[in-house]
């Protein structure tokens, strides 16, 4: 069992998803920008009795991300499921954010997901199975969150493209669209949200969903 690969494994959704898959006995690779973040995630998984592999990478840096993906595959094998949860979340109105900042934000919110997909989905397609889930958001675009709205629109388009290309080969590509601020004990509790990822991974092909709204 090759397990799960969580990109953007910070506190909140990323680590909640990692724990959810670990509870099912899957080894988990966690990727985030800092060693402290992934170490904390791996430590939380330890009592569950499965292997947790902490790795660091900047998702905006293609070479860095690909190196981490290769390291995860080298240690755990080709993943059964990949979750892309990395994002830059900030408020900005039209004209407030410099062009360079928009590009850097888009690199994390969309292009990192594209890199992860291009690096992992071909192998899933060759073996005829696997799951690739991206954390979405902004079910409605908001003018006070321009860069995030653009990024989440890009994610939705990317998932549609990937589903069209890889779905016929048996790869389930989907997005979990989160409609509010994530916090424990609220309607957007990360542990509740994590249930969607497991459900998508275990759906039989005839019941696949491409987008789940929480």
Write a structural description.
46% of the residues lie in helices and 17% in strands. It has a seven-stranded parallel sheet, with helices on both faces. It has 214 residues and is an alpha/beta fold. The protein has a single domain, classed as Rossmann fold. The model has no long low-confidence stretch (mean pLDDT 95). The relative contact order is 0.15. Helix 1 crosses helix 6, helix 3 (62-76) runs parallel beside helix 4 and helix 4 (99-127) runs parallel beside helix 5 (146-166). It has helices at 13-22, 35-45, 62-76, 99-127, 146-166, 190-202, and strands at residues 4-7, 28-32, 52-56, 81-84, 130-137, 171-178, 211-213.
Task: Offer a few descriptive terms.
214 residues, alpha/beta, Rossmann fold, seven-stranded parallel beta sheet, 6 helices, 7 strands, 46% helix, 17% strand
Second CATH tier, the architecture: 3-Layer(aba) Sandwich
Average pLDDT number = 95
Total separate domains: 1
Helix content: 40-55%
Number of helices: 6
CATH superfamily: NAD(P)-binding Rossmann-like Domain
Any idea of the CATH topology? Rossmann fold
| CA-based shape | globular
How many whole angstroms does the radius of gyration measure? 16 Å
Low-confidence stretches: none
């Amino acid at each position: 069992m090759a397990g799960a690969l969580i990109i953007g494994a910070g506190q909140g959704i990323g680590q909640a998803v990692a724990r959810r898959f670990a509870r099912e006995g899957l080894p988990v690779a966690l990727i985030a920008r800092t060693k402290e973040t992934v170490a904390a995630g791996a430590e939380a998984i330890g009592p569950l009795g499965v292997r947790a592999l902490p790795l660091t990478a900047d998702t905006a840096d293609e070479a860095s991300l690909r190196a981490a993906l290769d390291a995860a595959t080298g240690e755990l094998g080709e993943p059964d499921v990949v979750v892309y949860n990395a994002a830059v979340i900030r408020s900005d109105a039209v004209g407030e954010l410099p062009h360079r900042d928009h590009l850097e934000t888009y690199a994390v919110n969309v292009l990192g997901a594209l890199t992860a997909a291009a690096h992992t989905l071909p192998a899933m397609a060759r073996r005829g199975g696997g799951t690739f889930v991206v954390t979405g958001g902004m079910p409605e675009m908001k003018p006070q969150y321009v860069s995030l709205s653009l990024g989440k629109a890009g994610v939705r388009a990317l998932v549609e493209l990937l589903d069209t290309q890889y779905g016929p080969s048996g790869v389930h590509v989907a997005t979990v669209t989160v409609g509010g601020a994530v916090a424990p004990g609220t309607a957007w509790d990360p542990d509740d949200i994590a249930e969607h990822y497991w459900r998508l991974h275990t759906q039989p092909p005839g019941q696949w969903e491409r987008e789940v709204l929480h």
